[in-house]
Amino acid sequence: MWGKTHGVMLARRIFESVALHVLEHRPLAPGERPVSVEVEFRPEPEQDLLLACLWRYVQPEGDEPGFYTVAAITVEPLPDFIAAGHDRSVIAIRPENVDAWLDPMSGALTDMVAILDDPVDVSFEYRMVERDQQC
Question: In which residue ranges of the chain is pLDDT below 50?
Answer without folding.
Answer: 134-135
